[in-house]
Amino acid sequence: MKLSRTEEELMNHLWSLKKAFMKDLLDAYPEPKPAATTVSTLLKRMQEKEFVGYRTLGNLREYFPLVSKESYFSSHLNALIKNFFNDSPAQFASFFTKKVELSEAELHEIKTLIDHELDKKN
After folding, report:
1. Cα separation of 80 and 71, whole Å?
2. Cα–Cα–Cα angle for 65, 51, 71, nearest 5°?
3. Is 63 helix (H, G, I), strand (E, B) or coil?
4. Which residues in the chain belong to E strands, given as ranges?
5. Into how many domains does the chain fold?
6. Is 119 left (phi over 0), alpha (psi -120 to 50) or beta?
7. pTM of this prediction?
8. First to last CA, the chain
9. Does one domain contain both 53 and 9?
10. Who's near 3: CB < 8 A, 6+ residues apart?
11. Which domain covers residue 18, as residue numbers?
């Protein structure tokens, strides 16, 4: 399931904070901050989508992510590869290395990461 752009922004704050009360989430936003009712509505939708859970402490709710940032990003990256690159990670890698402005150092870093993964498979 996908989050809207505003839900992703809120989820990024929650991933950073790990757990948070409404006040913490509002404080994480830059000015102009969204209304508390807006954040509350987003949290409710994200709970329905099973991205966010909460604990009740007195009359307050402490929110926490139910999905890790890595898991969320991984599922979207896999969908992107499937839908736009014919389910071919190699096509994606080719596009990425040609169309993203990478320095020589960044390309070497990526090569090192790939070499490391290849070594683990041998």
Report:
1. 14
2. 80
3. strand
4. 52-57, 60-65
5. 2
6. alpha
7. 0.79
8. 35
9. yes
10. 11, 46, 49, 51, 72
11. 5-65
Is the previous residue joined to 34 through a cis bond, with omega within 30 degrees of 0? no
Task: Confirm whether 32 is domain-assigned.
Answer: yes
DSSP string, 52-105: EEEEEETTEEEEEESS-HHHHHHHHHHHHHHHHSTT-HHHHHHHHHHHS---HH
Of 42, 35, 33, 38, the residue nearest 14 (C-alpha): 42
Largest CA distance in the chain: 55
Is 71 among the domain residues?
no
Kindly report, residue by residue over 48-107, the tens digit of the pLDDT. 999 999 999 999 999 999 999 999 999 989 998 999 999 999 999 889 888 889 899 999
Non-local CB neighbours of 2 within 8 Å, separated by 6+ positions: 76
